[in-house]
Design brief:
It is a single chain. By secondary structure, this protein is α/β, with parallel strands linked by helices. It has two domains: 8-254, 3-Layer(aba) Sandwich (Aspartate Aminotransferase, domain 2), CATH 3.40.640; 257-372, Aspartate Aminotransferase, domain 1 (Alpha-Beta Complex). The chain has helices spanning 8-13, 40-44, 60-72, 84-91, 109-122, 134-140, 163-173, 187-190, 225-238, 244-254, 257-277, 300-309, 339-345, 361-372, and strands at 77-81, 100-104, 125-129, 145-151, 178-182, 200-204, 218-222, 281-285, 292-297, 314-315, 325-327, 351-355. A seven-stranded mixed β-sheet has the order 1-7-6-5-4-2-3, sandwiched between helices. The chain has a five-stranded mixed β-sheet with strand order 8-9-12-11-10.
């Protein structure tokens, strides 16, 4: 495992620095699809960690992102791919027919869509855990269980899990079962799953890591070198890698991640305070840090009024950007989750999910007030 010499804020601010052979402070954008071999001997002994040959295999910009994310998550290797779902696909790529996966019952809706695809087309078995009793989770592990998939805080119900306790219990009972954690909501600023005992961590880099609603990307970081090698073979073979321009944008964005997350949290806490005092809000879900807030309104008419009339906040899917976004999971992000499961979890037509951005919180509160007053 890579050991950091610097603190997180320094790693972020210095992301990509000292990597350019022309001594540029900010790593330049490399748009070449291929690279010249200076000699046949170099081609024979090509090392993708030190040299470049073809951009599907490695680019300076993507490698800088991967190096930074490896340091941030304290892993052995990181892989930057074309979307958050591509990161999930890579994470599950080692599974075979007959394998068993246990997932939390509250995840991004696209996860469950992909789980169904793997079950229907490849015979991989999936079961769910409600996140409450670790003993109940352990009881679900069978001889065929290969992976446990968690997301904390969960989307959109904001369930929070004790990764360290879960990892200790799972690895004590079944050392060969891997634990994967989606760390999109909290980022390495607030949570480092690998340090807590997880084996795999994934991010939708589209969200907080990029933070500007202007790129698609995904990140996978892994702790075990052997698994990293297996992922690398799949990664360069399928070619679902992050392009140089989006890698350059992502690296630029990572430099401000810590200060952005601090302000997202400060703004979200003020929004939560306002929502808890408004009589039209029946319940607020907030995990105490980060910028994600879910809340219930009394009826669907109020939901429609908010979504149709917000002016500062944008009614749009996604999250984690500098602009505040609001969405209705029941009809949007979690529409592919079975109706029975949505009902059981509490994902109803009166639940809204708010990604609190970096605007002045007074303006955000006034925007919600005027929309609710319609």
């Amino acid at each position: 495992m890579c050991k950091n010499k610097n603190e997180l804020a320094t790693i972020l601010a210095q992301a990509g620095n000292h990597l350019d052979d022309k001594n540029a402070v900010a790593l330049p954008l490399y748009l070449s699809s291929n690279y010249r071999h200076p000699t046949l001997e170099q081609a024979r002994n090509y090392d993708p960690k030190k040299e470049y040959t073809y951009s599907r295999i490695a680019t300076p910009n993507r490698q800088a992102v991967e190096k930074t994310m490896t340091q941030l998550e304290e892993g052995n290797a990181a892989f930057a791919v074309s979307s958050g779902m591509a990161a999930i696909q890579l994470a599950l790529s080692f599974l075979k027919t007959g394998d068993h996966v246990i997932s939390l019952d509250d995840l991004y809706g696209g996860d469950f869509r992909y789980f169904r695809y793997l079950q229907n087309h490849y015979g991989i078995d999936f079961s769910q855990w409600n996140g409450k009793s670790i003993n109940e989770l352990l009881a679900k592990i069978t001889a065929k269980t290969r992976l446990i998939w968690l997301e904390t805080p969960s989307n959109p119900m904001m369930k929070t899990l004790d990764i360290e306790k879960i990892a200790q219990a799972v690895h004590q009972k079944s050392p060969d079962v891997l634990l994967a954690v989606d760390n999109t909501f909290l980022t390495p600023v607030y949570q480092r799953p690998l340090e807590l005992g997880a084996d795999i961590v994934v991010h939708s880099a589209t969200k907080y890591l990029s933070g500007h609603n202007d790129l698609l990307g995904g990140i996978l970081v892994v702790k075990d070198p052997q698994l990293a090698s297996q992922y690398y073979d799949y990664y360069i073979t399928t070619g679902d890698t992050l392009d140089s321009f989006d890698s350059w944008l992502l690296l630029r964005s990572l430099k401000t991640l810590k200060v952005r997350m601090k302000q997202h949290t400060a703004n979200a806490k003020k929004i939560v305070e306002f929502l808890k005092q408004d009589s039209r809000v029946t319940k607020v879900l907030y995990p105490s840090q980060g910028g994600m807030v879910s809340f219930y309104l009394q009826n669907e008419q109020q939901v429609e009024a908010v979504l149709n009339n917000v002016k500062v906040i944008t009614f749009a899917e996604s999250l984690g950007g500098v602009e505040s976004l609001i969405t209705i999971p029941y009809y949007q992000t979690h529409a592919d989750v079975a109706e029975e499961q949505r009902k059981r979890l509490g994902i109803t037509p009166t639940l809204l999910r708010l990604s609190v951005g970096l605007e002045d919180p007074t303006d955000l509160i006034n925007d919600l007030k005027q929309a609710l007053d319609r």
